[in-house]
Amino acid sequence: MAPLPAAAVEPITELWTLYSFGTLAIFLRLFCRWRLVGIQNFKPDDFLVVLAWAVYTSITVLAHIFILDVGGKHTSLLTPAQRIAMPVSERPIWEYGSKLFMAGQITYVAIVWILKLNMLFFYQRLVRGLWVEKCIIPAMGLVVTAGFVIVLLFALVCRPFGHLFQVYPDPGEYCVPQNTVFFYSILALNLTTDLVIVLIPIPVIGPLQLPLLRRIGLCFLFGLGAFCMVAAILRIVFVFGLKRGDIAAMWTLREDFVAIFVGQAPMVVPIFSSKFWRGQYGQSQHKSGGISSGTGPYSKSNNNKNGSEGHELQSHKSRGSLGGGLRVGKKPDPYSITQAMSESQEEIVAKGSTEEAPRMVVTVQRTVDVESVDSGGRGPERRVERWL
């Protein structure tokens, strides 16, 4: 095998490093879900992440070929004078590079939009029972509509579509893979949908009294979500502002990686618990009694009817039993919003129950009427018993 060109060593190394960690995050998430709830109880976000991994693999392979086989060449880099002066024998490699670039751009949009839907399905389970749940379906509709608009842009901006790869004659400024209509439209729709997704849980999380570590964890995840938006903006700045398309390509891959990490991080939290490895993570026991078990292949019991909801849920179903009595539910996800609300309520109840109530004396008076046959005409005898 021939050694890599010096200019390709750094991007290829970063490319496959990001892919390795992204793949690890996805498989850890799937392993965690399989162990806790079983494949038969997977939800839409679990299947979407498998599709996202397949697309992520595709864009990584495309980027590898684009860097090594064509040296990053595509028709967007050519000036009109260069197109005229280029020998016919050199045109095929530029056309091939343009096709790879366009395929990579389509794949980039596909993975980002799949991960948006993945996150919204995840939110749907986490905020179930809260008022923000009604925002999930409209947000999904917005994401799907935005994706459809981008498909139309790819299909209609340059007609015929093959002119996107043409070297000579010059097909015009909008018939190149790296044109302003594609990039600015994708940026606007990407930022809009990202902002909507990030804002959904904030009204619920903001007022919560959470432990410091959990609040830091949530802020970290939201910070990474903001980083995805920053990466999308930097991609445009490098391409059209600094004319550095090579750096922009790496920021595209970094954005994909961060989007994957943000989506999987909350789901792999149970792996860091010793109960998870002992097969006890799905169990919860409360002071009033009662134990429930998960439904995964390593759980203690598979009889829980709600097992399909996994470790993220159950808190909203048990909020009504805070006052006492039997309460049953699996251990929720550490980043679950509904769980955090339940914990806040439980802390209030627990605090109130531990405070010493003022002492009081209760006097109970009971009157008993006793009627005797041999009373000799006397009226009923009344006795008063007093208990202290």
From TrEMBL:
Keywords: Membrane, Transmembrane, Transmembrane helix
The UniProt record lists the keyword Protein transport: no
InterPro entries tied to this protein: Rhodopsin_dom_fungi (IPR049326), SAT4-like (IPR052337)
Membrane topology: Multi-pass membrane protein
Keyword Membrane: yes
Domain of life per record: Eukaryota
TM segment ranges: 16-36, 48-68, 100-123, 135-162, 182-204, 216-237, 257-277
A single cellular component GO annotation: membrane
The Rhodopsin domain, residue ranges: 28-273
Chief location: membrane
Region entry Disordered, spans: 287-363
Subcellular location, record wording: Membrane
PANTHER family: PTH11-LIKE INTEGRAL MEMBRANE PROTEIN (AFU_ORTHOLOGUE AFUA_5G11245) (PTHR33048), SRPK (PTHR33048:SF2)
Record-stated family: Belongs to the SAT4 family.
Name of the molecule in the record: Rhodopsin domain-containing protein
Organism annotation: Macrophomina phaseolina (strain MS6)
